[in-house]
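Q: How would the structure tokens look for this protein?
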Amino acid sequence: MSDYEQIIAIRSQALALIRELHTQPKPTYSIDGRSVQWSQYLQQLEQTVDWCQRQLATFEPCEEVTQILP
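A: Here is the predicted structure in token form.
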């Protein structure tokens, strides 16, 4: 898998998680002294998507050559 394809995959996964958090929001809670803050998690996912967008922009314009073998 090329770097370009990996960044596309990371962006797609982050977007899917963002979609899930928006459709099924969860509260912030603590377990055994560890705090889980979903708003912070959402912000990190959004930053990941932004990072992916910036990385993908470095590949533009891009041409992918493929070959079909019999």
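The beta strands are 29-31, 34-36.

The helical segments are 3-23, 38-57.

Upvote if useful.
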